[in-house]
Structure formats: structure tokens, C-alpha cells
Sequence to fold (197 residues):
Amino acid sequence: MNSNLLIDTLPEALNIDGYDYPIDTDYTTFILVEELLEDRTLNGTEKSFELWELLFTKEKPEMNEDAVKQIEWFYRCGKVESQKRKEAIVKRTQSRRSLVDQIYDFECDDQYIFSAFMQCYGIDLTEVSMHWWKFKALFNSLSSDCEFVKIMGYRSADVSKIKDKEEKQRITRLQALYALPSKLTAEEKAERIGSMF
Fold:
């Protein structure tokens, strides 16, 4: 079931097998989760144990299907993926991945993200604790006039559809300047959480 940020209480625990397990809901924890999912030095089992250590602040649940579903649900900010959307994600990941999928990276873009939150909301991310769902809502709504959003726009631009030669060259140069290393998309990370177990 989908949650509504406006009317539902922000969860501080995951209900797994009928029992509430408190988790660390801070946005910094879930940035670390994203980095963990990208880590090529760890195998699936090692990532699973690291994930459990990051998330569960007290008692840890058994690693089972219910736990994984709850973690995916929380990571997606209470949104449940429809079967049709899941199939589209699988199809996209099996084909050539597009630049649109790789428009930001928390590690590479840390300074831009910090500046964007200061510019748009007056929030110093180094001095606040914030629930992951709040952070993602603010992150997804950053103003189009901040530098970080412009950079994401350059990264996602489809130069093949730009008719003007000079503009095409300009965007191509900006894409090269702000290019990210090959990373997983947010949807692929959510899917990877489930596939680790």
C-alpha cells in the first residue's frame, strides 16, 4: 500500500512478520545504503549484512522476504511499484541504459546537492538530521534555477533531438564536463535490495 507524506505518520520502524523493528530513518543512512549497493568490492552476502547493520538500530529481524519487501518499500518512500512499472524497469535495464537514468550521484554531486538545499530551502545539510522521505521530497522538488538542477538537465538532455548545431555542441560539452561514472539508477538500486537476499 502506498503512503501519503501529507497525511500519514512518517515511519520510524518496519513491521516485519508482525513485529516493529526500529530503523535509522536519517537521509544520511540511505545515502550510505545507495553507496553500499554500488560497492563492487563486496559480494551480495556481505552487502546484506552491511545493510542490516546500517538500518536496524536495535533488534535485527531475520533476513527474509518480508524484511526485504519492507526495506524496499521504505527506500521508495512508501510507494509500491506496480507490476507494469516493474516490467518496464526490467526491460530498460536489459537494454542499453540511457543518460536520463544517470542524472545524479550522491557521492559525486555532494557539493552541488549541499548548495542546492542551501539555495532552495536554507537548509544546511551538514547540521540537520532529516527523515529519508522528507529529504527525497525536497530533493525531487529542487528549483530549476539552482545549478544542480541545471547540471541534471544537461546530463539528461537527448542531444540527438537538438536541431541547432551550436546548441548541440554546447550540451555535448556540458555532458562531458558533468559526466558521472557508470552507476545504478534509483530504481535499479531498489530492485537490487530485493535481489541481494
